Amino acid sequence: LRAYSHALEDKSRSLERATAELREANEKLKSLDRMKDDFMSSVTHELRTPLTSIRALSELMRDDDHMDTAQRQQFLGIIVTEAERLSRLVNQVLDMAKIEAGHAEWHDTDVDLREVAEQAAGTMKESYRERGVALVLSLPAQVHAVRADADRLTQVVLNLLSNALKYAPREGGRVVLRLHEDPDRLTVEVEDNGPGIPLEQQAVAFEKFRQVAGDDHYRAGGTGLGLPISRQIVEHFGGSMWLRSTPGQGACFGFSLPRHAPTAADDSYNDEHQR
Ligand code: ADP
C-alpha cells in the first residue's frame, strides 16, 4: 500500500509540474500575442499618418483649380516626402519581421570594419557636403576581422551616419566616425555635436517607433525603426549597441562586435602588425 501511495504522490507531483509548465507557456504565448497586437497597431498608425496627408493634399489639389504654383509645389513636396516615408516604413517593417522570425538571410564572411566604415562614409559624403556638416573619419591603419554580413553592417553604420547628419547643427556641424580595436572586440562609434537626447528618451531610443512625432526629424522622414533594426543586426552577430548623450552636447551611438579569432591565415597580419 505504501509503495502504491508513493507512486501516486510522484504522479501527482509530476502532474502539478506539467500543469505549472503549461500555465507558464500559456502566459508566454499570451504576452507574445499582446506584443504582436501592439506592434500591429503601431504599424497601422504609422502607415495611416502619411497616407492621410497624401490623400488630403491630393484631394485639395484635385478640387482647387485656382491653386497657385507655389502652393502646388509645396503640397507636392510634402506628398513626395510622405510617400518616401511610407515606402521606407514598409521596407523596414518587412525587414524587421524577417529578422525577428529568423527568416533573414545572412551572408557571413570575415569583414574588415575599416572597409565598412569607408564605404558608408563614401555613400554619405555628398549629403554631408550638401548640408555643410563635416564628416571626420578616425580609423586605425589595420584591424582584425569580425565575422558578420558586410552589407548588414554597412546598413547599421549608414543608419547612424544619417541620424547624426539629421541632428548635427547647420552651422559648425561635425560628426566623427571612429573605429577602434580591443583585444577581444572592435568598436564603431558615431558622434555628433547636435542637441543630444533627453534622458527619458535615452532609455527607450532602441524601442520600435520611439521618436518624437512632430519634431523636425520626424518631418524629415524618420520611421523610428532604424535603431531597433540596427541593434538586432548587431546582436545577431554577438555584439552590443548603445548610446551615450549629455543633453545639449550631442549624441554618440556605438556598437561592438567580437573580434574574429585569429586563424593561421592571420599570421601575415600579425607579422605586419608587429613590425
Ligand atoms: P528614425 O531616425 O527613422 O526616426 P531611429 O530608430 O533611427 O528612427 O531613431 C529613433 C529616434 O532616436 C529618432 O527619431 C530620434 O528621436 C532619436 N535619435 C536618433 N539618432 C539621434 C541623434 N544622433 N541625435 C538625437 N536624437 C537621435
TrEMBL record:
Q: Which residues form the Histidine kinase domain?
A: 42-261
Q: Which residues form a coiled coil?
A: 1-42
As for subcellular location, the record says: Cell inner membrane
Top-level taxonomic group: Bacteria
Regarding protein family, the annotation reads: Belongs to the sodium:solute symporter (SSF) (TC 2.A.21) family.
Protein known as: histidine kinase
Ranked from the top, the taxonomy reads:
Bacteria, Pseudomonadati, Pseudomonadota, Betaproteobacteria, Burkholderiales
Task: Give from-to of the shown chain within the full protein.
Answer: 647 to 921 of 925
